[in-house]
Fold:
Amino acid sequence: NAGVTQTPKFRILKIGQSMTLQCAQDMNHNYMYWYRQDPGMGLKLIYYSVGAGITDKGEVPNGYNVSRSTTEDFPLRLELAAPSQTSVYFCASSHLFGDTQYFGPGTRLTVL
Amino acid sequence: SQELEQSPQSLIVQEGKNLTINCTSSKTLYGLYWYKQKYGEGLIFLMMLQKGGEEKSHEKITAKLDEKKQQSSLHITASQPSHAGIYLCGADGRGNNRLAFGKGNQVVVIP
Structure:
């Protein structure tokens, strides 16, 4: 099992550009999550999904969109990138309610 | 929202010494998770605690959750350079599997 994979590992965007951060898991997990981590801060939940076709907002959803068309994939879309979105983005998944969340290696995004 | 306070913010210990870091919540927790993060890498799951008074150990790391389920400690015995990193606690405060995280404890182990 590859676990949770994320692409790309690094990306630099110009203000106003858009991009999609990819996340995939091969553990057949129902729950998937997107977090952002800013320097010196904990992780903040952006969006999460409890299954294919079902997504919901987390703590800091503004400026982002998600979709969950399959169990395996949970892409995060940034529209009109802003410097405030410079961060490290982590995707995670868990099998059931209350189960441990397993994290991907992260995507480091810089918006200039 | 769930507030998690981690202390101390950073800690420098000599190799072979013990260390303890803490995670305190303002609310009763449904679950408390400890993760370790090395710079530039993802989070590695360490332990999960759910019951008041629960204690779990893995190799030289022991985590405890107090009876009120509002405070957890992580203790490392005879620290090694491999224990260096940022330790994050995450808490499920509402039983909805949405984790809130503390800012982390940075641990440095000096050979």
About this structure: Chain B touches chain A through 27 residues (CB under 8 Å). DSSP finds no helices and eleven strands in chain B. The mean pLDDT of chain B is 89. Residues 52 and 69 of chain B are 5 Å apart (CA to CA).
